[in-house]
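Researcher: Checking consistency across runs. Here is (pine wood nematode) hypothetical protein again:
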Amino acid sequence: MVSIKEYVEFVLVIIALIDEVNSLPTAKNCEDLLHVGYKDNGIYEISTFQGPRSVYCDQISDGGGWTVIQQRFNGTVQFWSARWEEYANGFGELGEDTEFWAGNELIHELTAQCRNMSRLRVVLFGDRSPMSQDDGQLYVGNYLFKIDSASQLYTIHIKYDKNLPNNATTGWYDLTLADLNPFSTVDRIHDPEPYCLRQYRMGGWWTKNCGVTSLNGEYNPREYGKGFGLFFMLKGQRVIHPRTTQMMIRCNDG
């Protein structure tokens, strides 16, 4: 039989453990996790306004601390036809070689945490266009980035910064052309040209008169090299259809 003294000691131990857990720093992004010693790529839990949320962290590339917000590998997840609420909340499966969209609500919250605009790292591999000389190439684009809230249609703010290294962009006819565009999906189109989302299968994305990039377009477009589906305008010169894509963010407050 447990004595009163033993019971009191047990309760005090439990209280101490609870206090210790509550005193631990709460990670709000992958950079916070990196700072407390989580240095491996993988799935981690962070704290958000909506409660705990699992995210995939890249803790190795370019210093680590990246929260991965988009990833595509083989077209197993249908991005172009996902609806507004799906893009708001996120879809797909987190993992090293899976396909997913982290969700516009989470992306907005992560970019709003930063004193300055976040840094967006875009990594593209290969080109599936027939007879392409770019297949097998790795491209990295670096941008300053944030998106607004749902009430502001997740409008994108994206800029080129020449001080960021390893840019595969020109800052004039690339992803930055989407600056100040609201987000569009097949069921909520804010592009003046609705065929961009539905016929060209570019959405959901920050399109306006289609634009020059959509990394969430149909993986296997009906035509290559003409701005259909998943494509990227490389250095303002030519269209590529990457085999894999990855978008990741971290604060640019250093």
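Researcher: Does this match what you'd expect to see?
Model: One thing to look at in this run: Confidence is low (pLDDT under 50) at residues 19-24.
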